[in-house]
Amino acid sequence: MEQMQNLRIPLQEIILATNRFSKENLIASGGFGNVYIGKLNISGEQSNVAVKRLVISNSGQGNHEFWMEIQTLSCYKHKNLVCLVGFCDESGEKILVYEYMKNGSLDRYISNKDLPWLQRLKISLGAAQGFSYLHNDVGPQHRVLHRDIKSSNILLDDKFEAKISDFGLSKIGPSNVEYTFLVTNACGTQGYIDPEYAKTDILTKESDVYSFGIVLFEILCGRLAISREYHDERRSLAALAQRRFDEDRLHEIIFPCLINQMNEDSLDVFSMVAYQCLKENRNERPTMASIVEKLEKALELQTTSKVTGIIRVGTWGKQSEDPQNHWSFVLEKHHRLVKITVYHGDVIYSLMFTSKSGGVSQTSEKTGGRARGKIVSEIIFDGGERITCINGTVDIRDGFPILASLSFVTTKTIHGPYGQATGTGFSVPWDKGSLVGFYGIAGKYIESIGVHLKPSYDGIIKVGTWGRTAPGGPQNDWIFQLEKNHHLEKITVEHGDLIYSLRFTTKYKGVISTSKKIGGWNGGDQTSEVTLDWNEEINEINGTVALSRGTYAGYTIISSLSFVTNKKTHGPFGDARGTPFIVPWDDGSFAGFYGMCGFYIDSIGVLLKPTIGEHTSSSSTTHQVHSISEQSTRPSNFKLRDKAKVHCNVM
């Protein structure tokens, strides 16, 4: 209270500072009242200030907001919160005095073509840092929920640094509980208010996150949350942005003048976090601290021109050193895969890919098919439908491996199988990333196939898992990820008739680190150590999935496991029974493992990253099927395994 009293400014000083609230000093007005620019003596110097003269209704509405603003800004200080210079509560006047923000509010610049993408990123990050402070760092027992996040409440100083303002509707809640929520009459601004809050009157920190997601889309799309010029789906930015994101058509609503300024990976990170903010389920929305991390990543990608690159997984089928028979299809920037044409019969003869951008379709050349296919099937993908797994079989034709069958698993359905499911089975699901193309070998038929995958914002993609698919508790999930510049030196495997546990040892600058044991709650029959040379790296795993036996019988587990490196094959460990799986990848891509565990290793997948030599901007990739250089072929030690079909199990 004493601190608040020190902020009191006599009414007469404010009248003089604003030239008696003259029209010449008026800089903004609204339902709350008017804002004037003025000059006050602060610490012995004449400084520009913004004077907000509030309108208080006869019922006293606005009085609570006045005192809430003073309480919040007098207690909490942060470089991204507007600074309260003082206030006046005299002669019926309710006046707030702030540091002057030369560039006004963000909403004035949303559609301004002169505000570049880099500056928009910095404004977004600054605002997120301010909101993260309110949610997490104001004190050990409480947090501040703003309740009225919108672009007009984010002010910009002379350097375009974001400053959060207008705390009149804010609420203070406890932070020393897992979930902070307050039951209060829903309030906020149309177009920004969390639908769950509006429906239930239950306010949570995730309500602020939703509103901030709208602001991020405003910054990206160059328009405000509600556009009254439209009377169709474009009226509400929230609904439009979510729909276009789900349909992989977000680029259609991005502010056109920003497109050529954007690093595509920076855009991917920014748009993903904005989309996650709008999730209907509050538990799926990111925290403000997480938003800060992702926006920092987006800014880093933009300023350093880093590219997340593409990861190649596969191939399955024939391996050839002749680059003339190699083919590759990679989606161009902003293109969406809308159709795959499959020529097939008893095998897969050829493939053709059609993509679309801005209403314009492009179709690749046909790959393979020197022998004509008997059946032509077209796979049409709906808006928002994404491929998440391919599976099929490899058989022998004329003494050489060829692709006998192929299926495409998407977020909506399974397309296929095409061809005849004979021979050796393969399956590869992925997560935390996206498909951007295919590659392989072709001649008379499609002789092999692999996938081009683009990782998520952190540069990692999850491939797998194989094994148990039923969900478990947090104690069942495991992950081992190599730290930067660390070398995987040893894998300790406890096994018997199955894989009981795994333990990983890494080395960095002579320092040895060993992970906790993963799985093995009940011990193991035998222990084996896989020791890797300094220049030896894993580029494939294979194994089998089966049901456990004995005391804990009937559980889906990893029954055997092998680690293939650029030098040799380590294993198999365990008992090779059940359904086989195999997944190869490019040298230099390995980043770790993950899966589920309990008494045994229940499932396993791999973490992959782009190789340094393979970092390629998506804007420079080609849509056409073309040959690949000899340097990009798989090592000749990768051979066709005589394995049966494996199911597409995703964790």
UniProtKB/TrEMBL annotation:
For this UniProt entry, the molecular function terms from Gene Ontology, in alphabetical order, are: ATP binding; carbohydrate binding; protein serine/threonine kinase activity; transmembrane receptor protein tyrosine kinase activity
Pfam families found in the cross-reference section: Jacalin, PK_Tyr_Ser-Thr
**Gene Ontology terms describing biological process:** response to other organism
Is the NAD keyword given for this protein?
no
Domain Protein kinase stretches: 21-299
The alphabetized UniProt keywords are: ATP-binding, Cell membrane, Disulfide bond, Kinase, Lectin, Membrane, Nucleotide-binding, Serine/threonine-protein kinase, Signal, Transferase, Transmembrane, Transmembrane helix
The way this protein sits in the membrane is described as:
Single-pass membrane protein
Where does the UniProt annotation locate this protein?
A: Cell membrane
Taken from the UniProt entry, a GO cellular component term is: plasmodesma
- PANTHER family the UniProt entry points to: JACALIN-LIKE LECTIN DOMAIN-CONTAINING PROTEIN-RELATED (PTHR27003:SF392), OS07G0166700 PROTEIN (PTHR27003)
Family stated for the protein in its record: Belongs to the jacalin lectin family.
List the protein's name: Jacalin-like lectin domain-containing protein
